[in-house]
TrEMBL record:
Protein name: Vanomycin resistance protein VanB
Matches recorded under PANTHER family: EXPORTED PROTEIN, EXPORTED PROTEIN-RELATED
Comp. bias (Pro residues): 33-44
Domain YoaR-like putative peptidoglycan binding residue range list: 248-367
Database matches in InterPro entries: Glycopeptide_resist_protein (IPR052913), Vancomycin_resist_VanW (IPR007391), YoaR-like_PG-bd (IPR022029)
Sequence segments annotated as region (Disordered): 1-52, 201-220
Membrane-traversing stretches: 58-81
Pfam families: PG_binding_4, VanW
Domain of life: Bacteria
Keyword Transmembrane helix assigned: yes
Swiss-Prot/TrEMBL keywords: Membrane, Transmembrane, Transmembrane helix
Length: 614
């Protein structure tokens, strides 16, 4: 509004201008715009004071100005009363002009009023699929305290807009991990896995696999979409995104052209102080690997373990294997009979990097490596600290045919291979790992083995009897059984259930030294028996076996086989199931009771000859 003030009455001929004061224009006021004030008349003279009417006008104008300032101050105080500026709305409810605590209570009350809508299932669309998700399951919620803090820190309406309002979006939280899991169920099989870049080998020919992007959900973008759309109450479309592998198809092709193909173009010479070894292209192809990480970044690397395996015995010309110290039982006591010796092996620390540097080259394909000393795992000094002092178990099985039969020779050969072995505390012993392949070159002979349910000649037949003997020796020593497999058929020379077969390389026997002492395996044999003794420090009072009754007994059937050298007759054995319990006592109490179970098939009665005519 505009206010015009006049001084004392004056004649109509007095044309001096009036003084106009413009007051505050309030929002919504329809008052006409204020007119600018006219300049004051000149003073009457140097000694003349202002006329009375002018003084009055000045006093009035000053009073209005002071009043306006007071109004403005009051308006500011009104606007900024409380922690949250007045006029602040969240979800349509006024939280302004309040302390943070009161504003939070007001907002929580509003959320309680909306609880039905907020807990209603949320409709989401992922690709072509639509489903409903429970907001609570994925952690959707309004963070009241964070919302009030945002409302408090946001800029307040200007003083000139005293009755204005502004809205503050609520802070919505969601568990991104649980949301991603729920959305992936909606996604189903619409997505596409990333095709990782790869370079593989077919012989010495590299084969490139070009990468392809995945089509999938991005947890962060999914969470953003759901947070933004939840309170609107409308279906939400969650975006699918393409994720490209870090290595492109062009980079894969360049790797093939600049590294893989040149790598196998010719041999690499490995030079040491004790001579040189040629690494042929086939060994390079087996050891040069191209591995992609989760992001699809393809990285070449020389796998030194694969390289050693591919070189086979070539390294024997420059390396010397360390030999462990050995023990033997002499005059009834275990003693060190061989102090062992250190060895020399190729230092592979920098070999992979050095090889990778020369593989792209056409010439100068030579790398140099050092040989480093390797101490044996078991030294004489270490043996002396292992507490191997007494026999804790012994087991014997019997065989026929004397020492001249191929089967007996195999039993003796494997016994010699294992004799004197020391198993350290915590170490797992593998019979296959210890002996390696048992073939003709290792001193083994053809003897009957079970193959496809029947006895046939096979190299190493009879080693299962030694395996069973070793298994029982460790069993009665209370050592931990790791791996064993009983025979398909039961043979009376073995204890039922507690026995084990072996076959290179698939069937193994393993036990773990689960004591704090060392274990010495001592073997001995006669013309009709094999014995394994375990020497260590005695821990248990006794280890015994209790058998359950045989059950589900089946009778053998008669099978006629083609006569010939490969046909081995058999009388047939009943099949049955049985349980055996290992009972371990210490200090007069049972400290462990272990159950072993097995079911034997009925071994057929094999007859080498034609079946009788009906």
């Amino acid at each position: 509004m505009t206010l015009t003030l006049y001084g004392e009455p004056r004649p109509p001929a007095d044309d001096r201008p009036t003084v106009q004061v413009t007051a505050v224009s309030w929002p919504g006021s329809d008052a006409p715009p204020a007119q600018p004030a006219q300049p004051a008349p000149p003073a009457a003279g140097p000694d003349a004071g202002p006329p009375r009417s002018r003084r009055l006008r000045l006093l009035i104008a000053g009073g209005v100005t002071v009043g306006l300032l007071a109004v403005a101050a009051g308006v500011g105080a009104y606007t900024y009363a409380g922690d949250v500026p007045r006029g602040t709305m969240v979800l349509g409810t006024e939280v302004g002009g309040r302390s943070r605590t009161d504003a939070a209570d007001q907002l929580r009350a509003e959320l309680d009023r909306r609880s039905g809508a907020l807990s209603a299932p949320l409709t989401v669309r992922v690709g072509e699929n639509t489903a409903e998700i429970d907001p609570a399951t994925v952690g959707l919620a309004v963070d009241v305290d964070a919302t009030v803090a945002a409302a408090s820190e946001a800029q307040a309406p200007p003083v000139s807009r005293l009755v204005g309002t502004r809205s503050v979006e609520p802070v919505v939280t969601v568990d991104a991990e649980r949301l991603d899991a729920a959305l992936r169920k909606v996604l189903g099989n619409q997505g596409r896995k990333m095709t990782m870049p790869a370079i593989s080998w077919k012989g010495t020919t590299p084969k490139a696999t070009h990468p392809k992007p995945s089509l999938t959900l991005d947890p962060q973008r999914s969470a953003e979409a759901v947070r933004a759309g939840w309170l609107a109450g409308e279906p939400i479309t969650v975006p699918l995104v393409e994720k490209h592998p870090a290595t492109t198809a062009e980079e894969v092709d360049r790797m093939v052209a600049e590294l893989a193909r040149p790598a196998v173009a010719k041999a690499v010479t490995l030079r040491t102080d004790k001579g040189s070894v040629s690494i042929p292209p086939a060994a390079i192809a087996k050891s040069l690997r191209f591995t992609a990480d989760k992001a699809g970044k393809l990285t070449p690397k020389v796998d030194v373990k694969r390289l050693r395996s591919a070189l086979g015995g070539k390294l024997d010309s420059i390396e010397v294997e360390p030999r462990n110290a050995r023990m033997a039982v002499t005059a009834g006591k275990p003693k060190v009979v061989d102090d062992g010796r250190p060895g020399q092996r190729l230092d592979t620390g920098d070999l992979d990097r050095n090889l990778l540097a020369v593989l792209p080259k056409a010439d100068d394909r030579t790398v140099t490596a050092d040989l480093k000393a390797v101490q044996p795992e078991v030294t004489a000094e270490k043996i002396g600290e292992l507490g191997i002092k007494e026999r804790v178990s012994r087991f014997t099985t019997h065989f026929t045919g004397g020492l001249s039969s191929p089967r007996s020779k195999n039993i003796v050969q494997i016994a010699k291979d294992v004799d004197g072995t020391v198993v350290l505390p915590g170490e797992t012993f593998s019979l296959n790992g210890h002996t390696g392949e048992r073939g003709y070159a290792q001193g083994y002979h053809d003897a009957p083995v079970i193959m496809n349910g029947k006895l046939v000649p096979g190299v190493g037949g009879g080693t299962s009897q030694f395996t069973t003997t070793l298994f029982n020796a460790t069993y009665y020593a209370g050592l931990e059984d790791v791996e064993h497999k009983p025979h398909s058929y039961w043979f009376s020379r073995y204890p039922a259930v507690i026995e084990s077969t072996i076959f290179w390389p698939h069937l193994d026997f393993k036990f773990r030294n689960n004591t704090e002492y060392g274990v010495l395996i001592d073997t001995s044999y006669t013309s009709s028996s094999i014995t394994v003794s375990i020497w260590s420090t005695k821990i248990y009072d006794s280890v015994k076996t209790e058998y359950g009754p045989r059950r589900d007994i089946t009778k053998p059937k008669v099978v006629y086989l083609e006569p010939g050298p490969s046909c081995i007759p058999a009388n047939g054995i009943d099949g049955f199931a049985q349980d055996a319990f290992r009972i371990i006592k210490k200090d007069g109490k049972v400290v462990k009771r272990e159950k072993f179970s097995w079911r034997y098939d009925a071994e057929p009665r094999f007859i080498c000859g034609q079946a009788p005519s009906a």
